[in-house]
């Protein structure tokens, strides 16, 4: 009995010291979803406009716009591909060794969903633009396909 308590205490102490893992809730353990949800959440990250600008300047990015074709046609980041989240197929997204695939949408909600799907498909970290094309435009970034205002 005492030995069991010592082992349990040691395991609890080790788990508490780790930043990698959180203790699962009883509901997550019962559903069997804790481990996959934690792993997937850790694989999606955001980057800001300045970080994206630096990647673009170095030619180290493949941009994927996950908005609708209508939104994409109305205005997009130069060089972007369109893969709407409504029909998103992670297997069709270009993932290269020399360039990072970055997803974006209008505000970052849809790109986060698509990044989650792509991260699960590739098993690696996927980043998307924080604030989406709205943040890009507010920072003065170029957008093509936009009709000039008169």
Please tell me the total number of domains: 1
- Count the beta strands: 5
Major sheet description: 5 strands, parallel
Mean pLDDT: 80
- Gross morphology is globular
Tell me what the CATH architecture is.
Answer: 3-Layer(aba) Sandwich
Task: Report Rg.
Answer: 20 Å
Structural class: alpha/beta
Strand order of the largest sheet: 1-5-4-2-3
CATH topology: Oxidized Rhodanese, domain 1
Describe the structure.
- With about 150 residues, the chain is an alpha/beta fold.
- The chain has a single domain, classed as Oxidized Rhodanese, domain 1, CATH 3.40.250.
- The protein is about 45% helix and about 15% strand.
- It has seven helices and five strands.
- It has a five-stranded parallel β-sheet with strand order 1-5-4-2-3.
- Helix 5 links the parallel strand 2 and strand 3.
- The longest helix has 16 residues.
- It is globular and about 40 Å long.
Secondary structure topology:
Layout lengths: L1 H16 L8 H6 L2 H9 L1 E4 L1 H9 L3 E5 L3 H6 L6 E2 L17 E5 L4 H14 L3 E4 L2 H7 L12
Parallel strand pairs: 1-5, 2-3, 2-4, 4-5
């Amino acid at each position: 009995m005492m030995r069991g308590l010592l082992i349990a205490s040691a395991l609890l102490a080790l788990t508490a010291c780790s930043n990698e893992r959180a203790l699962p809730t009883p509901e997550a353990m019962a559903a069997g979803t804790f481990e996959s949800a934690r792993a997937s959440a850790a694989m999606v990250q955001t980057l800001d406009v300045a970080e994206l600008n630096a990647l673009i300047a170095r030619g180290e990015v493949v941009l994927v716009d996950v908005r609708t074709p209508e939104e994409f046609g109305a205005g997009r980041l130069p060089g972007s591909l369109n893969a709407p989240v409504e029909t998103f197929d992670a297997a069709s997204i270009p993932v290269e060794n020399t360039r990072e695939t970055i997803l974006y949408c209008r505000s970052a909600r849809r790109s986060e969903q698509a990044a989650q799907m792509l991260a699960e498909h590739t098993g690696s970290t996927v980043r998307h633009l924080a604030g989406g094309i709205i943040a890009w435009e507010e920072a003065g970034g170029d957008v093509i396909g936009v009709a000039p205002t008169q």
